[in-house]
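Reply to dn_fold:

You asked what the input looked like. This is it:
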Amino acid sequence: MNAPTAFPDPKPVPPYKHTPLFPLGADTTPYKKITTEGVRVERVLGKDMLVVSREALRALSEAAFGDINHYLRPGHLKQLRSILDDPEASDNDKFVAFDFLKNANIAAGGVLPMCQDTGTAIIMGKKGARVLTDGDDEAALSEGARDAYLRRNLRYSQVAPLSMYEEKNTANNMPAQCEIYAEGDDSYKFMFMAKGGGSANKSFLFQATPSVLTKDRLSAFLKEKVLTLGTAACPPYHLAIVIGGTSAELCMKTVKLASARYLDALPTHGSADGNAFRDLEMEQQILKMTQSLGVGAQFGGKYFCHDVRVIRLPRHGASLPIGLGVSCSADRQVLGKITSEGVYLEALETNPAQYLPAVEQALGGEVVKIDLNQPMKQILATLSKHPIKTRLSLTGTMIVARDSAHAKLRERLEKGEPLPDYFKNHPIYYAGPAKTPDGYASGAFGPTTAGRMDSFVDQFQAAGGSMVMLAKGNRAAAVREACKKHGGFYLGSIGGAAANLAEHCIKKVEVVEYPELGMEAIWRIVVEDFPAFIIIDDKGNDFFKELNLG
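and this is what came back:
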């Protein structure tokens, strides 16, 4: 046996000096007090301990998810208004920004949420060493989130896997994603986020090599990857880029926090100790690059991004993870805290009307009115007269169907059955509504990401369906080819203005088929002056291809 019989004397090492990986500066967030109940201070082992009740956690979480589905931060609204005041912004930039401001004003009424995709409930807590709870913090915070979704006109988007291939909507938007860390002293701090599928799907990890770390190579790499974001997640974006990371998962976690501006108070330079920092110079360089792309706020222009955050992290010498992600027009996050003085939530803007221009501007160019109650052949003939980029106003009947409904209809075709007549006779709107409030014709009901339905288009158009499609974002080349082959059209609508569409454009909603799918059922809706643009036409022209997104 060669194993040692005792540990050798340790070699002397210098004293340990801890450097936090994320050394954030002071919290300058404006807070409002929610309540003082459920919070008290008790003396334990000679120390003042903050005792927080389960109900205080639940109430804070419910208030947070209520607020972030109806209100935005003042800074975000100021950025939208600045687009209207910028002479370099395109007409379409201004048209989208103005629609977002109107949408924010409607959502602030507290009835219709700003987006039909009211998101996955994400909660991050940092629990101080002198904070005591009864131990079921995750359950209490999740219950508060659930209560907000049950009590308000919010959508249940979470599906539970019953098997590898069978799923069922949980009907309460649970489970929440809840992460609690031990950090700080005598307070409990939180970030609450409602993350929609569109922006979550635009989170990318690239396992690059250290050879990328030169100015020219990194700039070229990032330009290529930023273009892959496309427009499906409702720009203008708050873009976050993270270079490095001690692991892939830390890189992507940092992307999410940076997109929420949670890391804005990081230092602006690195050190030999390995702290994270913001690269302000690169942030401005990438922002200018995004403005030069021509993509703009969904339909061409300058405002692909509101702003950019670039975070540099330490890394293993053999690894270079690079992460990209966005916060979209539904910029939904809010900070909270519990201290000895009470329960607090970040104060969001409850009066967004102040950011609207005094007189509504004529934005977006000339509008072509389309009667959707004509036979499909006539609708197609009318659309064929106009070039891509044409702004439309749609009035009449549309069929609403998205992922699960498309899968069920494909099963029919694969069994040798035809598509239903309603799928052939009407335009197909890719969407899934939030709950309909009492007295309203519709809940928030904006477009979902078109790209998820790309693989169905050729098969459906060959069978006479999906001849006119309406959604948001750029699409694959296969869709362009199918439209040219079968004489179809893809129309783009403004992503991120769901409350405005429900308030002003959608006049009737009824289930047609598959009610068991919940928000993914097939619906029939009647619309009036529904805004859209011709993106792909029957000749194979594609607006987004011109912007290198096709």
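The chain has a mean pLDDT of 94.
Hope that clears it up.
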